[in-house]
Structures are given as structure tokens and as C-alpha cells.
Recover the amino acids of this structure.
């Protein structure tokens, strides 16, 4: 993304680019085959001081703003496997950020510090079979029993679900609807918790799980904030999550464009390079135009977010446009590769199938359009 980066951010970018080129990119095919990233990745990023960039310094975090996270995402995306940044963001930005914001000192000392140091891996557990975008409909229930909560229910599509040491879990503690939701930290070794890995079309290096809770006991002290106040916590985290997806989508689209342009300058057909044909010049020009627009919307959303201004509409626009641009770019850029673009051995092929999930995570495109409509008086009363 085109902006004036600070010297510190540029230093971070150079450090990460060197690390990714030497230690991540050569291993992504093995990690995709394994269906998960190794714990050593989290330890390495902690050693570099980038695993908890936005977490509180008093608990081992970096205390930086979202621009530093944007640099981290951009450089991790260069490895060619979306699953790598997904695993890191699910840990540091999604699961642990809520503990840092709403947890008591004991929880923060254990989980925020453990997360920033790469000793513990986190996962955010919100989605259920009947409650994805509609968070207020979740059914997994936690009932207070003495000094514990007893949890019963299930979660679905949970990133880091099988490798996590803790799950920041959304549960129902009160009445139906948004006002009966709480957040609680569940250690992954809690009795009554079972985990099953799911098979996905893409993002293979990021494990995704179904979680089952059967009379799972968790200390009541693991509750985040007050009981029945969890819905607001989840909503407050969505803006950061959607910015993460926006940056990832822009980085993905840019990477696919660069791959397609390089291929078009090298590959010959009918006596000419592919970019000697006007049809491909124009198709990739359209892709680039969409990428530039998506990056501009994303930059605007980040600016408003960091300024503390109302930003739901702008962030929703960025997430909607950037992720749909990534899917459009995937289709166009894979096409120029012909049959090669359908092969797992080809980076473009892997990026193409990874792009399919971009419009779903952190709120689908349909949800984004609804948020934009409500924020801009487009809904008739």
C-alpha cells in the first residue's frame, strides 16, 4: 500500500522480508501438507518482537498501532500461503486482543504475556453451526456452578482450533439475544473439550476446527469483563478483524497481479509474449485499477480507526471491496496461466484457491453491504 511509512515501520518491513524469505517461504508447502504452521513460527516471531505488536507493553506486547500490523500482514503474505498470516492474526489480533482489552490482571499476565512471548497459542471461538454472522443467536451455554462455569455446546470453523493452548470463547450466560452473551477464556486442556480438524479447500497452513464442549469446567475467574457483556466485546473486535482481512486481501491481490504480470512478460504464445496481446493488457489493467481502489479504501479505513472516529461504514466498505477484488483478481490472474494456474505446484494456483474464503471471514460480503446500508440511511423505515 502506498503511504509514507516511518523509519521504524520500514525497518520492521526489511526485517520481516528477510525472515520470511529465509524461514517461511521455503517451508510453506510442508506446512500446507501438514495442515498447520509449527509452533516454532510463533516463537520466532516473538523473538523478532512482532508477535504481539498491538498488545500492551506491560504484558510483553509492542504497544504499536495498526500500521505495524499492516506491515506484518503484508510481509507474511509474501510467503505465498494465506494460512500463515491467518494463523498469526487469529492468535495475536483476534483471540488475544480481547483478553488484553477486557481481561483482569491475572488473565492478562498468563495469556497476553504468554501469547506475546510465543509460549501460548490462542484461538477465537465465536462461530457455531447455527450462528456465524448472527452472533446474537449463539447457543453454546455456560452455567455458573460454584467457582466454575460449566460449558456445553459446539463451535465451528475455528482458526487455530486444534493447535491453540487457549480459546477466547463466546458463550450464552443469559437470556436469548445479544444481551445474554459473555466471553470466557478456556484452556485447551480443560476436561470436556474435544477438537476435530476440518478439511478446507484452501488456506491449508492454517488449521480450522470444530470444538465440542461437554460439561467443560472453566474457572469463573476466566470470564472477560462482566457477565452478559460479551456481545459488545465481540463487536468492538470486529473492526480490527475486518481491517486485517482488508489488508490481507489487498496484499493477496497485489501478489497475484505481480505473478500474472511476470508470467505475461515471459510466456510466449503464437509468436508473442502474452502481454503483447491487448486483451491481457486490458484485463490486467482492470485488475490493477481495482487493487489501487481497494488499497485506498483500506488506508482510509485504517486512518479513521486510528483517529478514533466512527469507522464502521468505511471499514465495511474496505472489507467488502478489497475481498471481492481479491476474488476478481484471482480469477483473472489465474486465467493468464492457463492450465498451470490450476496446479497445486504453481503459486498462482494456490493463491487462487486461497482467495475463495476472503469474502466470508470476519463477516460475509452480504453482512458488509447491510452494515454500509444502515450506516448511510439506505434502509427504508
Amino acid at each position: 500500500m502506498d503511504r509514507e511509512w516511518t523509519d521504524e515501520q520500514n525497518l520492521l518491513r526489511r526485517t520481516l522480508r528477510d525472515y520470511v524469505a529465509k524461514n517461511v517461504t521455503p517451508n510453506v508447502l510442508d506446512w500446507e501438507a501438514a495442515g498447520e504452521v509449527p509452533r516454532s513460527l510463533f516463537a520466532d516471531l516473538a523473538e523478532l518482537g512482532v508477535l504481539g505488536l498491538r498488545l500492551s507493553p506491560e504484558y510483553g506486547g509492542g504497544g504499536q498501532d495498526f500500521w505495524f500490523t499492516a506491515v506484518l500482514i503484508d510481509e507474511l503474505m509474501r510467503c505465498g500461503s494465506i494460512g500463515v498470516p491467518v494463523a498469526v492474526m487469529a492468535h495475536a489480533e483476534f483471540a488475544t486482543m480481547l483478553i488484553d482489552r477486557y481481561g483482569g490482571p491475572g488473565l492478562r499476565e498468563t495469556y497476553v504475556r504468554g501469547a506475546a512471548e510465543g509460549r501460548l497459542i490462542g484461538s477465537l471461538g465465536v462461530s457455531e453451526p447455527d450462528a456465524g454472522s448472527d452472533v446474537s443467536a449463539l447457543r453454546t451455554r455456560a452455567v455458573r456452578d460454584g467457582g466454575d462455569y460449566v460449558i456445553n455446546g459446539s463451535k465451528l470453523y475455528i482458526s487455530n482450533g486444534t493447535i491453540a493452548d487457549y480459546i477466547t470463547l463466546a458463550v450464552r450466560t443469559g437470556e436469548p439475544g445479544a444481551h445474554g452473551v459473555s466471553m470466557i477464556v478456556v484452556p485447551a486442556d480443560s476436561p470436556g473439550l474435544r477438537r476435530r480438524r476440518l478439511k478446507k479447500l484452501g488456506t491449508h497452513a492454517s488449521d480450522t476446527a470444530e470444538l465440542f464442549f461437554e460439561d467443560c469446567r472453566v474457572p469463573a475467574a476466566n470470564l472477560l469483563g462482566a457477565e452478559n457483556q460479551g456481545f459488545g466485546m465481540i463487536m468492538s473486535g470486529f473492526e480490527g478483524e475486518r481491517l486485517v482481512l482488508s489488508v490481507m486481501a489487498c496484499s493477496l491481490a497485489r501478489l497475484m497481479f505481480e505473478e500474472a504480470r511476470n508470467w505475461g512478460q515471459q510466456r510466449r504464445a503464437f509468436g508473442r509474449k502474452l502481454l503483447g496481446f491487448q486483451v491481457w493488457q486490458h484485463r490486467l489493467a482492470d485488475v490493477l485499477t481495482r487493487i489501487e481502489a481497494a488499497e485506498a479504501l483500506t488506508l482510509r479505513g485504517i486512518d479513521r480507526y486510528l483517529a478514533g472516529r466512527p469507522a464502521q461504514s468505511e471499514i465495511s466498505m474496505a472489507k467488502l471491496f478489497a475481498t471481492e477484488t481479491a476474488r476478481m483478481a484471482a480469477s483473472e490472474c489465474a486465467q493468464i496461466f492457463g492450465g498451470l494456474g490450476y496446479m497445486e505446484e504453481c503459486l498462482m494456483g494456490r493463491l487462487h484457491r486461497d482467495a475463495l474464503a476472503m469474502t466470508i471471514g470476519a463477516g460475509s460480503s452480504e453482512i458488509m453491504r447491510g452494515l454500509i446500508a444502515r450506516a448511510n440511511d439506505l434502509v427504508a423505515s
Observations:
- The mean pLDDT is 96.
- The radius of gyration is 21 Å.
- The beta strands are 122-125, 141-145, 148-159, 166-172, 181-187, 193-197, 208-219, 223-224, 268-269, 272-273.
